[in-house]
Design brief:
CATH superfamily of the largest domain: Glycoside hydrolase 38, N terminal domain
CATH topology of the largest domain: 7-stranded beta/alpha barrel
Strand order of the largest sheet: 25-26-27-28-37-34-33-30-31
Number of domains: 4
Strand content: 25-35%
Number of helices: 13
Distance between the termini: 48 Å
Number of strands: 46
Helix content: 10-25%
Shape: globular
Largest sheet: 9 strands, antiparallel
CATH class of the largest domain: Alpha Beta
Length: 808
């Protein structure tokens, strides 16, 4: 190595700690304690030694179990020798979580840092996460961060012209970003030398360079030998100037003006992680939605005069969710025992979130005057637009009684009776009744319907259903009688065929490890699910259902295709019993487009991703395939899937993968060893297919909300209430491309927070109507902007002000 006096090598002492991976969280907890104790010892022995550590949950753990150690850490932080980086609860997967999950990683962590250590963190830090979504620059910037450090994907997986660059998101936000040139661990001298060699090569055009050292993954931290090696190298005249340093010191020396700009997502590393462990992915999506819904309902209850503060309970369940979005958990790469812990944690979040929702719903209902004729049925909408959709719900009602549903204006609502969830009759009470009917619920509001014990006066004709055809005035769906596959989805409004062939459940060979290291695509088809049975399951005035059962080997797929009376989409609920190993299931949809344009949802936004070579990609709850030269597109939304590939005009949604748990190349799979395989057994998932003649993202978002958000309801009793209105909206917007994702009590208890984002890529002026206080405000959004608004009361008046994601 040649000495260059102008160059400085910042040596960063660290310990990458996976709280969960090849061990359970309890062991990870212990490793945090042992590592931090070791670091404090090294600081006493070496006055030049500095340490860098992320993950705010680790500091909270130490504060809880060892206050004396925590005070020592605080002292070292104040001295500047211990640097807290990351500013998030953990180092999460940076693709799968929702946009709001990333916001909460920062919101709770940064506020904790400010309160406990006196300042927030300015350095984003996810060195081991498996890719980074394109909206992170905006989220990081608006959460108080100035810099971002990552390692994966490495240069051989994703070429970026410079290791230092300004990363730019679609709204124009930028953050100074560095890709770590070497590894984040270095156990012995030879590893440190190798890291230095890599750094000098990759950062040869920069005078300031950074290089990591220290034992990691299972914790450990910089060893005595590590530190002595640094002292030796400082004396080596062939080396550049070497410093015991921190990431902050390194970034402070970077010349921001001359950095190149990079505008794109940072992918790919380990594409199998987009689909590994279907159940964890499903529970993550469910938990995220349940918390957001419960938080909205809690705020709505407060707006209507309920005094219960739900904020503390919600923060606690958010923290459980955020921990389980750690990259080796949510990516599905941990051992089975650790994964099972996460399943329990996700379910606890869902359970507690639903309890909060129920408490809030009851509080709202108690404010409403429900006196009058008919049993009150109250439906609640937490979306920022009017929910004009189909309800499918059960009520306690004698099976032999007549039943009529009436809305708040006295209009009779036609319903369809269908089978209840129970296979028995409640003889003591008289039974259950399940009904399907059209509802219209105002934005952030409720509507009271009434149920009467009388025969309905409106009798609608049943929908037309044939052995292999579902049809209404908007759409016609035709099944192949021999295969049971959909062979045609015809848009009757626009006279356009959506498909260019059959929708097929394809089985694909996959002998890759859990991560799918080195894999770009999964395309070796080895078979299809074959028809066992197809029948009309339900036929009525409001909906019709065709059930298709198919098999592959020992695996079974039951699909319930539902078409509502006025819908322009087909809804598919799937029950899969998967018994395959080293295989993938994809549902393959050949879309009738010649020159496709592909758009998909990502955290707090969307991405145009023009890759049709079959590469495995991630997406969130919806995708769109448009004809590039025409004003038309096909929309597919789902409730739990995150992976797909697009091969020419064929969209292949990845349903499940079945590698061995925590198998990492190059370790072989041995014939005489018993392994546990992923995704075995039953899973339930849903998707919808529709068309969009407007070629915007609003409809895709609404289709996703049907599956992921829906509505809440309550069969109430008769009681007085101070609110006489039987139909009320608390908050609304006049532009549908602005989505209110969050409504919550502010962290400082001085008002309400609304977090909104623009989904079309258009500059938008919108009127925000706060009907509960009779106020209207005009807002302007730049394309793809995420905006956080605080509504507060000052001097007997309500005002709004724009704040950052930390609510300051």
């Amino acid at each position: 190595m040649n000495k260059d006096n102008k160059k400085t090598l910042h040596m960063i002492g660290n310990s990458h700690i996976d709280p969960v991976w090849l061990w359970r969280w309890q062991e990870g907890f212990q490793e945090v304690k042992a590592t931090f104790s070791s670091v404090l010892d090294r600081m006493n022995e070496y006055p030049d030694f500095n340490f860098t550590a992320s993950s705010i949950v680790y500091y909270k753990w130490i504060e809880d179990i060892d206050p004396e150690m925590f005070e020592k850490i605080k002292k070292r932080v104040k001295e500047g020798r211990w640097q807290i980086v990351g500013g998030w609860f953990v180092e999460p997967d940076c693709n799968i979580p929702s946009g709001e999950s990333f916001v909460r990683q920062a919101l709770y962590s940064q506020r904790y840092l400010k309160k406990t250590f006196g300042d927030i963190c300015t350095i984003g830090y996810n060195i081991d996460s498996f890719g980074h979504n394109a909206m992170l620059p905006q989220i990081l910037k608006k959460s108080g961060f100035k810099y971002y450090l990552f390692m994966r994907p490495v240069e051989s997986e994703k070429h970026i012209d410079s290791p230092l660059f300004k990363w730019k998101s679609e709204d124009g936000s930028t953050i100074i970003t560095c890709r770590l040139p070497g590894e984040y661990t270095a156990w012995f001298k030879e590893h440190i030398l190798k890291n230095i060699e890599k750094t000098l090569k990759v950062m040869k055009n920069y005078n300031e360079m950074l290089c990591f050292y220290g034992v990691g993954n299972h914790g450990g931290g910089p060893t005595i030998q590590n530190i002595n090696t640094i002292y030796e190298l400082k004396k080596d005249k062939t080396m550049p100037k070497i410093l015991f340093s921190t990431v902050k010191d390194f970034f402070s020396k970077v010349d921001e003006q001359n950095l190149p700009e990079y505008k794109d997502e940072i992918q790919h590393h380990s594409v199998g992680c987009y689909s590994a462990d279907s159940e964890l992915k499903r529970l993550n999506r469910k938990a995220e939605n349940v918390i957001i819904i419960s938080e909205k309902l809690g705020a709505m209850a407060n707006m209507l005069g309920n005094n219960k503060n739900f904020k503390y309970d919600i923060e606690k369940i958010w923290e459980v969710l955020l921990f389980n979005q750690f990259h080796d958990i949510l990516a599905g790469t941990s051992i089975e025992e650790a994964r099972n812990d996460a399943v329990s944690h996700f379910n606890s979040v869902i359970s507690k979130g639903k309890f909060i929702s129920n408490t809030a719903i009851q509080a709202i209902a108690n404010k409403i005057d429900t006196l009058g004729e008919g049993y009150p049925l109250i439906l609640f909408n937490t979306n920022s637009y009017e929910f004009d959709e189909w309800a499918d719900l059960e009520i306690a009602w004698d099976c032999k009684k007549a039943l009529t549903i009436v809305d708040d204006l006295g209009n009779e609502v036609p319903y369809q009776r269908t089978r209840t969830s129970a296979a028995t009759t409640n003889v003591n009470f008289g039974g259950r009744r399940r009904v399907v009917f059209k509802v219209n619920i105002p934005a952030f509001g409720y509507r009271v319907y009434r149920i009467f014990d009388r025969e309905p006066s409106i009798i609608k004709e049943d929908m037309k259903v044939y052995d292999n055809i579902l049809e209404n005035k908007n759409i016609k769906v035709i099944f192949n009688k021999q295969s049971g596959n959909i062979r045609s989805i015809y848009d009757k409004r626009n006279k356009f065929e959506l498909l260019k062939g059959e929708i097929i459940a394809k089985v694909i060979k996959d002998e890759s490890d859990t991560w799918s290291h080195g894999i770009k695509n999964f395309n070796e088809v080895i078979g299809n699910f074959e028809l066992v049975d197809m029948r009309i399951l339900e036929k009525g005035c409001n909906r019709a259902i065709i059930k298709v059962t198919s098999k592959y080997g020992e695996s079974k797929l039951e699909q319930f295709y539902t078409l509502y009376e006025d819908a322009d989409y087909i809804r598919v609920k799937n029950y899969l019993n998967w018994q395959e190993k080293h295989k993938i299931l994809k549902i393959s949809m050949p879309i009738n487009v010649e020159n496709p344009k592909f758009i998909c949802e990502i955290p707090y936004g969307y991405l145009n991703r023009d890759s049709y070579e079959g590469h495995e990609e991630f997406a969130h709850s919806w995708v769109k395939i448009e004809e590039r030269d025409k004003n038309y597109g096909v929309v597919i939304a789902n409730d739990s899937k995150y992976a797909y590939d697009m091969t020419n005009n064929v969209y292949n949604m990845t349903i499940c993968r079945s590698p061995v748990y925590a198998h990492h190349d190059p370790a072989p799979i041995e014939e005489d060893v018993i392994y546990r395989y992923m995704d075995q057994g039953e899973q339930i998932f849903s998707f919808v297919i529709s068309f969009d003649e407007k070629c915007g993202n609003v409809k895709a978002n609404k289709l996703s909300d049907i599956l992921n958000v829906g509505y809440e309801y309550l069969i109430d009793t008769y009681h007085k209430g101070e609110i006489k209105a039987q139909n009320m909206s608390l908050i609304s917007l006049d532009k549908e491309n602005i989505i209110v994702e969050v409504l919550k009590t502010s962290e400082d208890d001085n008002g309400y927070i609304l977090r909104m984002y623009e989904i079309e890529g258009s500059e938008t002026k919108t009127e925000l109507s706060l009907k509960y206080i009779n106020k209207k405000y005009n807002l302007v959004f730049s394309p793809c902007e995420i905006k956080t608004i605080l509504i507060t009361r000052e001097n007997e008046d309500y005002i709004y002000k724009e704040v950052n994601m930390l609510e300051v």
